[in-house]
Write a structure and sequence with these properties.
The protein is an alpha+beta fold. It folds into 4 domains: about 5-105, no CATH class; about 115-215, no CATH class; about 220-305, no CATH class; about 320-395, no CATH class. Helices cover about 35% and strands about 25% of the residues. The chain has 13 helices and 13 strands. The protein has a 6-stranded antiparallel β-barrel. A 4-stranded antiparallel β-sheet has the order 9-8-7-13. The radius of gyration is 27 Å and the shape is flat. The two termini are about 50 Å apart. The mean pLDDT is about 90.
Length: about 400
Amino acid sequence: MWNISKNVKEKFTTCNLLPIHESDRDWEVALREANEEGEDLTARLKEELEEVKEKILHILPTRFIPYVENGTLNQPTLPKAVREDYLQWMKEADNEFEKILDNAYDQTMNAVSFLPSTVQDVFEENLHDSTIKRIQREGDVLHLYINTDGGFSSISLVHFTFQQIIAEESDNPIQVGQWLIYDELMKTEDGYAFRVLFDCPDTEWTITMKKLDANYYYRPTTFTRLLDIEMIDNTTLLEYFGQLNPNFRYFLITPDVTTLVKTFSDKSITIDKGSIKIEKNEMIVTVKDKQFIYNLAEYNPIDFIYTDVYEDPYGHLHDQIPIEKMEEAALSSDLELQVNALNTMYLNPQKSAHIINRVLKEVNITEENEQVIIHFVNHFYNKGILTEGVVEKYKTLLD
């Protein structure tokens, strides 16, 4: 029996279509801010109610319907008792949905225990907010590539292989670019069933098969660092490979091809049973006599490179700096070095108090380091180790 479904998701979404302020104080603040900005809050709330009225009337308990009909359900004039009742109803709907998701998770974890370790690894992560990158069908086998970069997973790309497919049901055809919102896996008598709720377009997709396998890949740490400093688009593929760890395996995974990178340097790249060429505005990938061309205005070749080794892209920020080098590092123009030094001080504030005060007295606040400095200054202030002069310098930044 499935827990998640399109109907369940739609019910939850509908229950939350008309949020309201929870207290008299919240309403006072909202009214004051609207008045200061010259906004007609009452009119705006009336429009918001009209926009969702038709949908919520189908799901609201009858006791709230009069307040929808007279337009006061989301107004500050709503009686307090009704407001609290409505908020409690919304909370119960949220709790009911959370319980459904918990049950789906439990069923998934039970089913996963019968599957290969790679599949277990994937479901230990969170697939929410990932997107379909590639769909490839071969008889009764489906290869589904899921890009998890936009989600909550340390994994960057998942390759699901659904084998000996028994059935596949969907109210819309699944397509590249769709967002994965919720998923659930079930153990069946003959194998497994997997259900996903996708967005854009809204779709409920269920596939039943005898076997399920998965491979997964990570972004090289260099990718994240280049992305953070906005250098991805200004770095060539050869320059990128020149910065990668030569001890790791790398894979080229495009919308059409998955292959091992055999050798690489900052001068050349070779792939298994094929070749890569970049000419003018195109990347040409040839594998087993098949040629695939990618327009560089649409694709960045760096986006096709993955590894099977995980490295924390921010792990270097936690490297502790020797105390004799701490002050120099904290005052350097290198933001990463600054953060390393401040992290070291963060872990030993009492021991480093004299250095912390010297650094904070001398450091220049820039647009680049402002948020970092604010975070650390408040931490050290709460530890009670800042001198009066330092407190005076940062008094406008202290919580």
